[in-house]
Design a protein that fits this description.
- This protein is α/β, with parallel strands linked by helices.
- The chain has one domain: NAD(P)-binding Rossmann-like Domain (Rossmann fold, 3-Layer(aba) Sandwich), CATH 3.40.50.720.
- Helix content is about 45%, strand content about 15%.
- It contains seven helices and nine strands.
- The strands form two sheets. A seven-stranded parallel sheet has the order 3-2-1-4-5-6-9, with helices on both faces. Strands 7-8 form a two-stranded parallel sheet.
- The termini are far apart.
Length: about 270
């Protein structure tokens, strides 16, 4: 049985969603630095263009297209733009995400549905548009950035928790469905990360959320991941040679190093 052909890095075009900031932007930069042509997608096109120019200035190849995951027609249009800009898409990284800091009871059904649309349904729609060609070519990588809320659900963000649980469930099913096709579906599950998401919350919103997390023992230390650290894990998952499939990578921030008092030192 012949192995599927492995393209060199510079011939593996990559699509990154949620690329206007945070993990998505860092992932686009990291992939481009390895020679992958990238397409950055998000609603904030001007911020994507700024990152794309950074990539071009460093000698990489970068394109930008608008992507609104709340609009199915816009998702379909983005998939068309990806094929037009990149040709054969080899890598799809789903980084787009949104979080709503509200309890289940206080979240309207419409707002809950919007979270599912952005974090889960939009990703599934892109998979249906971009992965069939990968399957026909017998090679490709789908990488889904989820969250450690799948392992440790957090209060006051149930719509986000539900959407990330759903995203991992979809990815797990995909892993079985794609087995033997040469297309890999991988999950990167980061812990607390310093990104734009949630950092703009006003203190009157942030404080009750953190208090609840502490009450349930979900804040162990003050360490946070950088977006670049998570992007490194995404790149590792997407660029393994044929024959290796990293199904799940968990990335957590290391606790700040403690320094015992001098009189306690041995």
């Amino acid at each position: 049985m012949s192995e599927r052909p492995a393209l060199p890095a510079e011939q593996r075009p990559a699509v990154v969603t949620g690329a206007s900031s945070g993990i998505g932007a860092a992932t686009a930069v990291a992939l481009a630095a390895l020679g992958h042509p990238v397409l950055l997608g998000a609603r904030r096109v001007e911020r994507c263009e700024s990152t794309a120019q950074q990539i071009r200035d460093a000698g990489g190849v970068a394109h930008v297209a608008a992507l609104d995951l709340l609009d199915p027609a816009a998702v379909d249009g983005f998939a068309v733009a990806a094929n037009e800009a990149l040709g054969q898409v080899e890598i799809l990284v789903s980084c787009a995400g949104d979080v709503l800091p509200r309890s289940t009871v206080d979240t309207t059904p419409e707002d809950f549905a919007a979270q599912l649309q952005v974090n889960l349904l939009g990703a599934q729609r892109l998979v249906t548009r971009l992965s069939p060609d990968m399957i026909r070519r017998r090679r490709g990588d789908l990488v889904f950035v989820t969250s450690d809320v799948v392992r440790l659900p957090r209060p006051l963000m149930s719509s986000y928790v539900s959407s990330k649980w759903g995203l991992e469930g979809m990815a797990r099913a995909l892993q079985m469905e794609l087995e033997g096709t040469g297309v890999r579906a991988s999950i990167v599950r980061p812990g607390p990360t310093l990104t734009g998401m949630g950092m703009e919350w006003e203190p009157e919103v942030l404080t009750p959320v953190l208090d609840e997390w502490k009450r349930w023992g979900l804040v162990r230390h003050a360490g946070y991941l950088s977006a670049e650290a998570v992007a490194d894990a995404v790149v590792v998952a997407a660029t393994r040679p044929p024959g290796t499939h990293l199904t799940l990578i968990e990335v957590e921030p290391e606790a700040p190093v403690s320094h015992p008092a001098e009189d306690d030192a041995p």
